Protein backbone atom coordinates (compact mmCIF):
# COMPACT_ATOMS: atom_id res chain seq x y z
CA UNK A 1 0.00 0.00 0.00
CA UNK A 2 3.08 2.26 -0.05
CA UNK A 3 5.02 2.75 -3.31
CA UNK A 4 8.50 1.25 -3.01
CA UNK A 5 11.73 3.22 -2.67
CA UNK A 6 10.63 6.08 -0.44
CA UNK A 7 13.19 4.91 2.13
CA UNK A 8 15.99 5.08 -0.46
CA UNK A 9 15.73 8.42 -2.26
CA UNK A 10 13.50 11.53 -2.34
CA UNK A 11 10.36 11.12 -4.46
CA UNK A 12 11.61 13.72 -6.93
CA UNK A 13 14.80 11.74 -7.54
CA UNK A 14 12.97 8.41 -7.86
CA UNK A 15 10.75 9.81 -10.61
CA UNK A 16 13.77 11.53 -12.15
CA UNK A 17 15.45 8.13 -12.44
CA UNK A 18 12.45 6.91 -14.45
CA UNK A 19 12.71 9.89 -16.77
CA UNK A 20 16.48 9.51 -17.15
CA UNK A 21 15.97 5.94 -18.28
CA UNK A 22 13.38 6.94 -20.93
CA UNK A 23 10.21 5.63 -19.28
CA UNK A 24 7.10 7.72 -19.90
CA UNK A 25 4.47 5.81 -17.89
CA UNK A 26 4.33 3.99 -14.56
CA UNK A 27 2.10 0.99 -13.91
CA UNK A 28 1.49 1.86 -10.26
CA UNK A 29 0.10 -1.02 -8.24
CA UNK A 30 -2.34 -0.82 -5.35
CA UNK A 31 -4.51 -3.05 -3.15
CA UNK A 32 -8.30 -2.78 -2.99
CA UNK A 33 -8.19 -2.86 0.82
CA UNK A 34 -6.13 0.34 0.75
CA UNK A 35 -9.33 2.09 -0.35
CA UNK A 36 -12.00 0.06 1.39
CA UNK A 37 -10.37 -0.78 4.74
CA UNK A 38 -7.08 1.05 5.33
CA UNK A 39 -7.47 4.39 3.58
CA UNK A 40 -7.21 6.39 6.80
CA UNK A 41 -4.31 4.43 8.23
CA UNK A 42 -1.16 6.48 8.82
CA UNK A 43 1.97 5.22 7.04
CA UNK A 44 4.11 5.42 10.18
CA UNK A 45 1.57 3.36 12.17
CA UNK A 46 1.47 0.64 9.52
CA UNK A 47 5.27 0.39 9.35
CA UNK A 48 5.54 0.27 13.14
CA UNK A 49 2.87 -2.45 13.34
CA UNK A 50 4.95 -4.45 10.86
CA UNK A 51 8.10 -3.83 12.97
CA UNK A 52 10.05 -2.16 10.17
CA UNK A 53 12.32 0.38 11.91
CA UNK A 54 14.79 0.26 8.99
CA UNK A 55 12.09 1.43 6.60
CA UNK A 56 10.83 4.10 8.99
CA UNK A 57 14.36 5.47 9.40
CA UNK A 58 14.89 5.53 5.64
CA UNK A 59 11.64 7.33 4.88
CA UNK A 60 12.35 9.73 7.77
CA UNK A 61 15.64 10.61 6.06
CA UNK A 62 14.49 10.98 2.46
CA UNK A 63 10.72 11.63 2.56
CA UNK A 64 9.85 12.50 6.16
CA UNK A 65 6.47 14.05 5.39
CA UNK A 66 5.20 10.69 4.09
CA UNK A 67 5.29 9.13 7.56
CA UNK A 68 2.47 11.38 8.75
CA UNK A 69 0.34 10.77 5.67
CA UNK A 70 -2.45 8.26 5.18
CA UNK A 71 -1.82 5.56 2.60
CA UNK A 72 -3.96 7.41 0.06
CA UNK A 73 -2.17 10.70 0.73
CA UNK A 74 1.15 8.95 0.17
CA UNK A 75 -0.14 7.67 -3.18
CA UNK A 76 -1.27 11.20 -4.03
CA UNK A 77 2.22 12.54 -3.32
CA UNK A 78 3.82 9.95 -5.59
CA UNK A 79 1.30 10.41 -8.41
CA UNK A 80 1.61 14.19 -8.22
CA UNK A 81 5.39 14.02 -8.54
CA UNK A 82 5.11 11.58 -11.44
CA UNK A 83 2.75 13.98 -13.20
CA UNK A 84 4.94 17.01 -12.48
CA UNK A 85 7.75 15.36 -14.45
CA UNK A 86 5.44 14.66 -17.40
CA UNK A 87 5.18 10.94 -16.78
CA UNK A 88 1.79 9.22 -16.95
CA UNK A 89 0.23 6.63 -14.64
CA UNK A 90 -1.58 3.38 -15.37
CA UNK A 91 -3.27 2.65 -12.04
CA UNK A 92 -3.13 -1.12 -11.50
CA UNK A 93 -5.27 -3.05 -9.03
CA UNK A 94 -2.80 -5.80 -8.21
CA UNK A 95 -4.53 -7.55 -5.29
CA UNK A 96 -7.28 -7.04 -2.71
CA UNK A 97 -5.37 -8.10 0.40
CA UNK A 98 -2.05 -6.22 0.60
CA UNK A 99 0.51 -8.96 -0.04
CA UNK A 100 2.95 -10.35 -2.58
CA UNK A 101 1.27 -11.68 -5.72
CA UNK A 102 0.64 -14.33 -7.03
CA UNK A 103 -0.01 -18.01 -6.19
CA UNK A 104 -2.96 -20.20 -7.08
CA UNK A 105 -3.79 -20.64 -3.38
CA UNK A 106 -3.32 -17.00 -2.27
CA UNK A 107 -7.10 -16.43 -1.98
CA UNK A 108 -6.72 -13.24 -4.04
CA UNK A 109 -6.94 -14.81 -7.46
CA UNK A 110 -10.54 -14.85 -8.68
CA UNK A 111 -14.01 -13.61 -7.85
CA UNK A 112 -15.46 -15.04 -4.62
CA UNK A 113 -12.08 -16.06 -3.27
CA UNK A 114 -11.69 -15.21 0.41
CA UNK A 115 -10.04 -11.88 -0.42
CA UNK A 116 -11.85 -11.16 -3.68
CA UNK A 117 -15.41 -10.15 -2.91
CA UNK A 118 -16.78 -8.70 -6.18
CA UNK A 119 -18.82 -5.99 -4.40
CA UNK A 120 -15.87 -4.74 -2.36
CA UNK A 121 -13.66 -4.91 -5.44
CA UNK A 122 -16.04 -2.75 -7.49
CA UNK A 123 -16.38 -0.35 -4.55
CA UNK A 124 -12.58 -0.03 -4.37
CA UNK A 125 -12.28 0.57 -8.12
CA UNK A 126 -14.98 3.24 -7.86
CA UNK A 127 -13.27 5.00 -4.97
CA UNK A 128 -9.95 5.04 -6.85
CA UNK A 129 -11.57 6.27 -10.08
CA UNK A 130 -13.40 9.04 -8.24
CA UNK A 131 -10.34 10.10 -6.26
CA UNK A 132 -8.19 10.59 -9.37
CA UNK A 133 -10.96 12.04 -11.53
CA UNK A 134 -9.24 15.41 -11.86
CA UNK A 135 -5.64 14.14 -11.93
CA UNK A 136 -4.47 14.31 -15.54
CA UNK A 137 -1.39 12.19 -14.84
CA UNK A 138 -3.64 9.13 -14.39
CA UNK A 139 -4.52 8.12 -17.94
CA UNK A 140 -5.61 4.50 -17.43
CA UNK A 141 -6.96 2.10 -14.80
CA UNK A 142 -6.70 -1.66 -15.06
CA UNK A 143 -9.32 -3.92 -13.50
CA UNK A 144 -7.19 -6.65 -11.95
CA UNK A 145 -3.71 -8.07 -12.28
CA UNK A 146 -3.33 -11.71 -13.34
CA UNK A 147 -6.59 -13.46 -12.50
CA UNK A 148 -5.73 -16.99 -11.39
CA UNK A 149 -6.63 -19.97 -9.23
CA UNK A 150 -9.10 -22.86 -9.29
CA UNK A 151 -12.25 -20.68 -9.26
CA UNK A 152 -11.56 -19.23 -12.73
CA UNK A 153 -14.45 -19.48 -15.18
CA UNK A 154 -15.61 -17.47 -18.18
CA UNK A 155 -19.12 -16.81 -16.89
CA UNK A 156 -17.92 -14.87 -13.85
CA UNK A 157 -15.18 -13.23 -15.92
CA UNK A 158 -17.73 -11.67 -18.30
CA UNK A 159 -20.11 -10.76 -15.49
CA UNK A 160 -17.74 -9.03 -13.11
CA UNK A 161 -15.18 -7.62 -15.51
CA UNK A 162 -18.05 -5.91 -17.34
CA UNK A 163 -19.36 -4.48 -14.05
CA UNK A 164 -15.91 -3.31 -12.99
CA UNK A 165 -15.18 -1.70 -16.36
CA UNK A 166 -18.49 0.16 -16.38
CA UNK A 167 -18.00 1.30 -12.78
CA UNK A 168 -14.68 2.95 -13.68
CA UNK A 169 -16.05 4.42 -16.91
CA UNK A 170 -19.11 5.92 -15.26
CA UNK A 171 -17.09 7.33 -12.37
CA UNK A 172 -14.17 8.67 -14.37
CA UNK A 173 -14.84 8.94 -18.13
CA UNK A 174 -11.37 10.44 -18.67
CA UNK A 175 -9.33 7.24 -18.25
CA UNK A 176 -8.73 4.22 -20.42
CA UNK A 177 -10.11 1.00 -18.91
CA UNK A 178 -7.64 -1.88 -19.13
CA UNK A 179 -9.05 -5.41 -19.05
CA UNK A 180 -7.00 -8.50 -18.19
CA UNK A 181 -7.63 -12.11 -19.12
CA UNK A 182 -7.51 -15.47 -17.40
CA UNK A 183 -4.62 -17.71 -16.31
CA UNK A 184 -2.24 -14.99 -15.09
CA UNK A 185 -3.36 -12.69 -17.90
CA UNK A 186 -2.22 -14.97 -20.70
CA UNK A 187 -5.62 -16.01 -22.10
CA UNK A 188 -8.16 -13.88 -23.95
CA UNK A 189 -8.91 -16.24 -26.83
CA UNK A 190 -12.49 -16.83 -25.63
CA UNK A 191 -13.28 -13.30 -26.89
CA UNK A 192 -13.14 -14.66 -30.46
CA UNK A 193 -16.50 -16.36 -29.95
CA UNK A 194 -18.01 -13.93 -27.48
CA UNK A 195 -16.74 -10.32 -27.46
CA UNK A 196 -17.27 -8.23 -24.34
CA UNK A 197 -20.47 -6.37 -25.20
CA UNK A 198 -20.15 -3.12 -23.24
CA UNK A 199 -19.80 0.48 -24.36
CA UNK A 200 -16.85 2.37 -22.90
CA UNK A 201 -16.77 5.04 -25.57
CA UNK A 202 -13.72 3.64 -27.40
CA UNK A 203 -11.72 3.48 -24.16
CA UNK A 204 -11.56 -0.29 -23.81
CA UNK A 205 -8.01 -1.67 -23.82
CA UNK A 206 -6.91 -5.25 -23.19
CA UNK A 207 -3.67 -6.34 -21.57
CA UNK A 208 -1.55 -9.48 -21.60
CA UNK A 209 1.59 -10.75 -19.84
CA UNK A 210 4.46 -13.12 -20.64
CA UNK A 211 7.63 -14.45 -19.04
CA UNK A 212 10.17 -16.97 -20.25
CA UNK A 213 8.47 -19.69 -18.16
CA UNK A 214 4.86 -18.79 -19.03
CA UNK A 215 4.60 -21.37 -21.77
CA UNK A 216 2.55 -19.51 -24.37
CA UNK A 217 2.66 -21.90 -27.30
CA UNK A 218 5.38 -23.86 -25.51
CA UNK A 219 5.91 -26.03 -22.47
CA UNK A 220 5.97 -24.15 -19.17
CA UNK A 221 9.72 -24.53 -18.84
CA UNK A 222 12.20 -21.68 -18.92
CA UNK A 223 14.91 -24.12 -20.04
CA UNK A 224 13.07 -24.80 -23.28
CA UNK A 225 14.66 -21.63 -24.68
CA UNK A 226 18.02 -23.39 -24.69
CA UNK A 227 16.80 -26.92 -25.43
CA UNK A 228 15.18 -26.12 -28.79
CA UNK A 229 16.32 -24.03 -31.78
CA UNK A 230 15.57 -20.34 -31.20
CA UNK A 231 13.62 -19.91 -34.43
CA UNK A 232 11.34 -22.81 -33.52
CA UNK A 233 10.67 -21.84 -29.94
CA UNK A 234 10.25 -18.16 -30.88
CA UNK A 235 7.91 -19.05 -33.71
CA UNK A 236 5.81 -21.22 -31.40
CA UNK A 237 5.70 -18.47 -28.79
CA UNK A 238 4.60 -15.79 -31.27
CA UNK A 239 1.97 -18.12 -32.71
CA UNK A 240 0.70 -18.76 -29.19
CA UNK A 241 0.68 -15.04 -28.36
CA UNK A 242 -1.35 -14.23 -31.45
CA UNK A 243 -3.74 -17.09 -30.75
CA UNK A 244 -4.39 -16.04 -27.15
CA UNK A 245 -4.19 -12.24 -27.31
CA UNK A 246 -2.62 -10.72 -30.41
CA UNK A 247 -5.67 -11.47 -32.55
CA UNK A 248 -7.47 -8.63 -30.74
CA UNK A 249 -5.51 -6.03 -32.71
CA UNK A 250 -6.56 -7.30 -36.15
CA UNK A 251 -9.75 -7.52 -38.21
CA UNK A 252 -12.84 -5.34 -38.44
CA UNK A 253 -13.43 -5.22 -34.68
CA UNK A 254 -9.81 -4.62 -33.67
CA UNK A 255 -9.19 -3.18 -30.20
CA UNK A 256 -6.04 -1.88 -28.47
CA UNK A 257 -3.78 -4.31 -26.61
CA UNK A 258 -1.04 -3.41 -24.11
CA UNK A 259 1.71 -5.87 -23.25
CA UNK A 260 1.56 -4.61 -19.69
CA UNK A 261 3.99 -6.99 -18.02
CA UNK A 262 7.09 -8.96 -18.94
CA UNK A 263 10.51 -9.15 -17.37
CA UNK A 264 13.84 -10.90 -16.99
CA UNK A 265 16.50 -11.43 -14.35
CA UNK A 266 18.61 -8.28 -14.66
CA UNK A 267 21.22 -9.33 -12.11
CA UNK A 268 22.97 -11.44 -14.76
CA UNK A 269 20.93 -12.01 -17.87
CA UNK A 270 20.86 -15.73 -18.65
CA UNK A 271 20.95 -17.36 -22.08
CA UNK A 272 17.29 -18.31 -21.63
CA UNK A 273 16.31 -14.74 -20.76
CA UNK A 274 18.35 -13.30 -23.62
CA UNK A 275 16.66 -15.55 -26.16
CA UNK A 276 13.20 -14.94 -24.73
CA UNK A 277 13.76 -11.17 -24.65
CA UNK A 278 15.07 -11.06 -28.23
CA UNK A 279 12.02 -12.95 -29.45
CA UNK A 280 9.57 -10.82 -27.48
CA UNK A 281 11.15 -7.53 -28.54
CA UNK A 282 10.79 -8.57 -32.17
CA UNK A 283 7.11 -9.26 -31.55
CA UNK A 284 6.46 -5.98 -29.72
CA UNK A 285 8.16 -3.82 -32.33
CA UNK A 286 6.60 -5.69 -35.23
CA UNK A 287 3.09 -5.32 -33.76
CA UNK A 288 3.75 -1.76 -32.55
CA UNK A 289 2.52 -2.61 -29.04
CA UNK A 290 2.89 -0.46 -25.95
CA UNK A 291 4.48 -2.35 -23.08
CA UNK A 292 5.31 -2.37 -19.38
CA UNK A 293 8.39 -3.95 -17.82
CA UNK A 294 8.40 -5.70 -14.46
CA UNK A 295 9.92 -3.98 -12.67
CA UNK A 296 11.65 -0.69 -12.01
CA UNK A 297 12.21 -0.92 -8.25
CA UNK A 298 15.39 -2.29 -6.73
CA UNK A 299 13.74 -4.00 -3.78
CA UNK A 300 10.87 -4.11 -1.29
CA UNK A 301 10.14 -2.74 2.15
CA UNK A 302 8.74 -6.15 3.06
CA UNK A 303 8.05 -9.14 0.85
CA UNK A 304 7.03 -12.55 2.15
CA UNK A 305 8.28 -11.70 5.65
CA UNK A 306 11.70 -10.57 4.37
CA UNK A 307 12.84 -6.99 4.96
CA UNK A 308 14.53 -5.13 2.09
CA UNK A 309 14.36 -8.16 -0.17
CA UNK A 310 16.22 -7.54 -3.43
CA UNK A 311 14.29 -7.51 -6.74
CA UNK A 312 16.52 -9.20 -9.30
CA UNK A 313 14.09 -8.18 -12.07
CA UNK A 314 14.45 -4.50 -11.14
CA UNK A 315 15.84 -1.95 -13.59
CA UNK A 316 17.68 -0.22 -10.73
CA UNK A 317 19.87 -2.11 -8.30
CA UNK A 318 19.51 -2.42 -4.52
CA UNK A 319 20.95 1.09 -4.02
CA UNK A 320 18.27 2.60 -6.32
CA UNK A 321 21.01 4.70 -7.95
CA UNK A 322 22.45 2.49 -10.72
CA UNK A 323 21.20 0.20 -13.45
CA UNK A 324 21.20 -3.42 -12.38
CA UNK A 325 21.79 -4.60 -15.94
CA UNK A 326 24.57 -2.43 -17.36
CA UNK A 327 23.49 -3.14 -20.95
CA UNK A 328 19.90 -2.06 -20.32
CA UNK A 329 19.98 1.16 -22.36
CA UNK A 330 21.38 -0.60 -25.43
CA UNK A 331 19.06 -3.58 -24.99
CA UNK A 332 15.90 -1.45 -24.87
CA UNK A 333 16.74 1.42 -27.22
CA UNK A 334 14.62 0.01 -30.06
CA UNK A 335 11.59 -0.57 -27.84
CA UNK A 336 11.84 2.85 -26.24
CA UNK A 337 11.71 4.84 -29.44
CA UNK A 338 8.87 5.61 -31.82
CA UNK A 339 9.18 3.02 -34.58
CA UNK A 340 5.90 3.54 -36.42
CA UNK A 341 4.40 6.92 -37.27
CA UNK A 342 0.59 6.67 -37.43
CA UNK A 343 0.46 9.79 -39.64
CA UNK A 344 2.91 8.48 -42.23
CA UNK A 345 1.70 7.66 -45.74
CA UNK A 346 4.79 5.66 -46.60
CA UNK A 347 5.33 1.92 -46.50
CA UNK A 348 8.37 0.60 -44.70
CA UNK A 349 10.13 -2.67 -44.06
CA UNK A 350 11.79 -3.69 -40.81
CA UNK A 351 14.51 -6.33 -40.84
CA UNK A 352 15.03 -8.17 -37.57
CA UNK A 353 18.23 -9.97 -36.73
CA UNK A 354 17.92 -12.41 -33.84
CA UNK A 355 20.96 -12.22 -31.59
CA UNK A 356 21.63 -14.86 -28.98
From TrEMBL:
Keyword Hydrolase recorded: yes
GO BP annotations of the record are: polysaccharide catabolic process
The portions of this protein that span the membrane are none
Fetch the InterPro entries from UniProt: GH (IPR017853), Glyco_hydro_5 (IPR001547)
Keywords, alphabetical: Glycosidase, Hydrolase
Statement: the UniProt record of this protein carries the keyword Hydrolase = yes
Q: Which Pfam family, just one, is annotated for this protein?
A: Cellulase
- Domain of life, source organism: Eukaryota
Stated family: Belongs to the glycosyl hydrolase 5 (cellulase A) family.
UniProt-recorded name of the protein:
Glycoside hydrolase family 5 domain-containing protein
Species for this entry: Vicia faba
Amino acid sequence: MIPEGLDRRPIRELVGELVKNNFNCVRLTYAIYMWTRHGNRIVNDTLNDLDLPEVVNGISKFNPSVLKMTHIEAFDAVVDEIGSQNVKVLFDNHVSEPKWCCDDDDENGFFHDRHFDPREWIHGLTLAAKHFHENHAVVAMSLRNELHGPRQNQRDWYKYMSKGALAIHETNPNVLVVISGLNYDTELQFLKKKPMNIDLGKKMVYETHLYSWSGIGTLKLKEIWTKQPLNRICGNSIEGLDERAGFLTTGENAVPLIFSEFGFDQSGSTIEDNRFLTCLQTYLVGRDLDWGLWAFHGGYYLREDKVHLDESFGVVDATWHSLRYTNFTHKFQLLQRKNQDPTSKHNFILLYILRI
